[in-house]
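Reading a protein record of the kind used here takes only a little practice. The record below shows the convention in full:
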Amino acid sequence: METNRREFLKTMGIATLCACTGAAGFNSCSMIKGVSKTTPIPSEAITHNGNFLMIDLEQSAFLQITGRAGKISLEDEDQTKIIVVHHSPGQYKAFSDRCTHGGRELNYLHEKEQLQCSSFGHSAFKLTNGHVIKGPAEGPLAIYPTSKSGNILNVQIS
């Protein structure tokens, strides 16, 4: 079967358009469903009291280990998601568990001291202040103040 130049160029143009469109979609964390590997904190370990979440660390033993993280999904009107990180002995941090680019959950990378979008890791955030290390995310993560009293970790949510 013979192909003339016009048919060949038309076919190549369509193939190029499809390839570019697919690559653009594949590169976007807002288009790919990313789910983090972060362990959920058991609901029985969490008490919601006004502006605070109180996490019983005895009921979420994995969170007592330095280098581990846990996630919380609140059933409030905003569907708030929080990632709690045990970054150094006795020190905890809490952030919004939504990438500021596409809203996907985050993974904690202890060895790199950063949080990373679960959608192919295109966006990464500093553990110190939630600021963007690399994008496409442009804005920082929301930070929730934490304090520890005995075996209770308090996270101020508003």
